C-alpha cells in the first residue's frame, strides 16, 4: 500500500503543526527501479528523453581511460539487462542493480545522487535498446536516440552493420561519462567518504 503525504498550504494547522510557508513539490522525479524490464516508459522518454540526451551530451568530455575506469560504475546497471548477456541471464535484478549503484554513490547528497542516477540509468537504458534490437537505428522510437548522422553511411546495410554499433557505443560513452562525473562529484560534495577511484 502506498503511503501518500499531503502537502500543507501556508497558514494551515494540521496534526498540531503549523506550516509557516507554502510547501512545493520536490524538483526530483524519482523513478522506481523495476525488478526487470524497461526502466522508463514511453511517455517518460517522449517527454524527458531529448532533454536528458542534451544534458548527457553537455557533460565535459573525459579521456578514454577515465571512461573505461568509470564503466565499473555503469556496469552495475548493465549487469541487470538479460540482453547484455550471451546466455540471456542477468546476474541480478534491475532493482538490485539500482540499489548497488545508489550505494556506490551514497556519499553524494540525495538530490545530487538522484540526478546522477537518472542520467546513468537513462544512458544505459538507451544503450541496451541496441543490444535488444539489432536494427534499432532503422526504426527508433524517438529520433533523439540517434547520436549518429545517418547520412554518414552508404546505405541501409552500412547503417545496420556500422551505424548501429557506433550509435550504441556513443550511448555507452555517455553512460560512462555520466558515471565518471557522478563519482568525481564527491570532490565538491560536503560529505567525503571513500569512493572507488576512476582515474
Distance between the termini: 44 Å
Helix content: 40-55%
How large is the share of residues in beta strands? under 5%
Seen as an oligomer or otherwise, the chain set is single chain
Query: So what's the overall shape?
Result: globular
Gyration radius from CA atoms, angstroms: 19 Å
SSE string, helix = H, strand = E? EEHHHHH
What class, by secondary structure content?
mainly alpha
Number of strands: 2
What is the tally of helical segments?
Answer: 5
Low-confidence stretches: 1-28, 189-195
Arrangement of strands in the largest sheet: 1-2
Average per-residue pLDDT, rounded, comes to: 83
User: Largest sheet, described in full?
Assistant: 2 strands, antiparallel
Overview features:
single chain; 5 helices; globular; disordered N terminus; mainly alpha; 2 strands; 2% strand; 199 residues
How does this model look, in words?
This protein is an all-alpha fold. The chain is about 50% helix and about 0% strand. It is built from five helices and two strands; from the N terminus they run E-E-H-H-H-H-H. The protein has helices spanning about 40-60, 65-80, 95-105, 110-130, 155-185, and strands at about 15, 15-20. The protein has a two-stranded antiparallel ribbon with strand order 1-2. A hairpin with a 2-residue loop joins strand 1 (about 15) and strand 2. Mean pLDDT is about 85; it is low at about 1-30 and about 190-195.
Amino acid at each position: 500500500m502506498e503511503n501518500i503525504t499531503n502537502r500543507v498550504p501556508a497558514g494551515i494547522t494540521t496534526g498540531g503543526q503549523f506550516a509557516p510557508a507554502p510547501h512545493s513539490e520536490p524538483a526530483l522525479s524519482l523513478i522506481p527501479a523495476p525488478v526487470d524490464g524497461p526502466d522508463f516508459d514511453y511517455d517518460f522518454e517522449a517527454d524527458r528523453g531529448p532533454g536528458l540526451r542534451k544534458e548527457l551530451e553537455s557533460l565535459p568530455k573525459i579521456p578514454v581511460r577515465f571512461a573505461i575506469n568509470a564503466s565499473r560504475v555503469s556496469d552495475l546497471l548493465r549487469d541487470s539487462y538479460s540482453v547484455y548477456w550471451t546466455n540471456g541471464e542477468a546476474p541480478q535484478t534491475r532493482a538490485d542493480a539500482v540499489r548497488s549503484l545508489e550505494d556506490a554513490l551514497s556519499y553524494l547528497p540525495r538530490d545530487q545522487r538522484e540526478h546522477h542516477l537518472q542520467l546513468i540509468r537513462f544512458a544505459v537504458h538507451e544503450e541496451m535498446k541496441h543490444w535488444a534490437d539489432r536494427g534499432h537505428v532503422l526504426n527508433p522510437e524517438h529520433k533523439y536516440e540517434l547520436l549518429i548522422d545517418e547520412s554518414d553511411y552508404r546505405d541501409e546495410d552500412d547503417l545496420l552493420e556500422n551505424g548501429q554499433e557506433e550509435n550504441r557505443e556513443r550511448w555507452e560513452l555517455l553512460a560512462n561519462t555520466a558515471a565518471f562525473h557522478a563519482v568525481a562529484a564527491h570532490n565538491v560534495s560536503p560529505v567525503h567518504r571513500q569512493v572507488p577511484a576512476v582515474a
